[in-house]
Design brief:
With about 300 residues, this protein is mainly β. The protein has helices at about 5-20, 30-35, 300-305, and strands at about 60-70, 75-80, 80-90, 95-100, 110, 115, 120-125, 130-140, 140, 150, 195, 200, 205, 210-215, 220-225, 230-240, 240-250, 260, 265-270, 280-285, 295.
Length: about 300
């Protein structure tokens, strides 16, 4: 999912700081999933220093919740977003329950990955709705409900009317870049969505891995390579600016310098690089192009071309 390369790199740095995980700064950055996979051992039960052994009576307590990634705002989340739970007694927590409305009918839980006794990170599971969270360490060790967390539905389109307009798609020399079933994701998939203090510089289009990706605009292949954050990606230099296609399944068969016509298949939707879930991250750049000009919100361009989906 995600942004200009440059911005993705900064987001990666920011995450690295947040999670205190040693992450290579520009390249070799692990996916978020693997960064979060590092799990700390629970604290030893006996203190070799001779102070009285603490009984494990400290129930997990949630003090604060903050959405870290793929968030409409720091205080709201959506399915797939990473949230950080801060409190105490969290090291032994095994799962976090998204309680939703009163009663258990809409409860959804997810496995927790404690970073320490005071902090853990979880992904908001599919189906979670707004409500309190509780942290569960065992049968008799469950935190009191947290303050409610707002969870935004995945289909709630939020378009900033003040956002710059994309060029019109009326020329006929344009094609919708995903040739198959797709959705636009939630607010976190939008251009301008917060990425840990940086801005998402493209639009994510959710589609099954393997769905054909076609050139949205004609042009000349400027970049076709792999990068740890972008995954396999292609940049096409057109007369109106550049188009970028990120997280592709495998390297595009195109060669740099090759001319591509709008609608021509260039790759397939994938999940490579810093991506969670199959999707195409699509960017449009004003002249002089990718990472040199300004990024443009591609949503109106995409919607104008989108016949179904
Ligand atoms: Zn993206």
């Amino acid at each position: 999912m995600l942004v200009t390369l440059a911005h993705d790199v900064r987001a990666g740095r920011r995450l690295a700081v947040v999670f205190s995980v040693a992450i290579g700064l520009a390249f070799g950055v692990p996916t978020e999933a693997s960064a979060l996979g590092a799990r700390q051992a629970p604290p030893p039960s006996a203190d070799p220093g001779g102070t009285p052994a603490e009984t494990p009576s400290s129930l997990p307590t949630i003090r604060r919740i903050r959405c870290l990634r793929d968030c409409p705002s720091p205080s709201a989340a959506q399915a797939g977003a990473k949230i950080r739970v801060v409190g105490s007694g969290l090291a032994a927590v095994r799962k976090v329950v998204f309680q939703g409305a009163p009663g258990t009918a809409d409860d959804v839980s997810t496995r927790a990955r404690p970073r320490s006794d005071r902090s853990l990170v979880v992904a908001v599971p599919d189906g979670a709705v707004s409500g309190s969270l509780s942290a569960v360490a065992g049968r008799a060790a469950r935190s009191r409900p947290s303050r409610p967390l707002t969870i935004v539905s995945d289909n709630s389109a939020e378009v900033d009317p003040a956002a710059p307009r994309a060029p019109s798609a009326s020329s006929g020399a344009s094609a919708f870049p995903v040739a198959g079933a797709h959705t636009y994701g939630g607010a976190g998939a939008r251009f301008g969505a917060d990425r840990g203090g940086r801005s998402h510089q493209g639009q994510d289009l959710m589609a099954a891995c393997g769905t054909p990706v076609v050139a949205a605009r004609s042009g000349v292949v400027r970049i076709n390579r792999f990068q740890s954050l972008a995954g396999n990606y292609v940049v096409i230099d057109g007369t109106d600016g550049d188009s970028a296609y990120l997280h592709l399944t495998s390297p595009s068969p195109l060669t740099v310098g090759q001319t591509v016509t709008a609608g021509q298949q260039i790759a397939t939707v994938g999940n490579t690089g810093n991506s969670r879930g199959c999707h195409l991250h699509f960017e449009m750049w004003a002249e002089p192009g990718y990472q040199r000009g300004a990024p443009i919100d591609p949503l109106s361009f995409l919607k104008a071309l989108d016949s179904g989906g």
